[in-house]
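Journal club prep — side note

Before the paper discussion, L.F. wants everyone to see what a predicted structure for a comparable chain looks like in token form. Sequence:
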Amino acid sequence: MNVKDSEFKALLEKYKKFSVYGLSPDATKPSHYVPAYMRDHGWDMVGLYPKTHESGGFKIYNTLAEVPAEYRKFVDVFRSSDRIDEVVDEALAAGGVEVLWLQLGITNPEAEARAEKAGIKVVSNRCLIIEHKKNF
């Protein structure tokens, strides 16, 4: 992680649009209710999920490359730690990713280092709801 906790507020203020990698159709899962919470507090987001769904009124894309550029700058990730290499590969191939936010419990030091080397800001093992409540 190359972003300090003290930088989270400025980061969230700068990026009011983002994509949620792994946005679940299941409203009981964090990968659904965290984006819903952020949307309810003024952020705008789209989702990525392998199967198209319409749950929660989110626009869902199948790949990061399909996501409009303004939503691709900040990518909030809900994937298991062992899948972060693939997420970083996809982010680098799609281009335009400035922030990779790995949700609570998700870390992959090797993949994070590759993203950082490519100039991407990386936050790992942090929940957007918790950080929002601390900073706003």
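L.F.'s comment for the group: DSSP finds six helices and six strands in the chain. Keep this in mind when we get to the figures.
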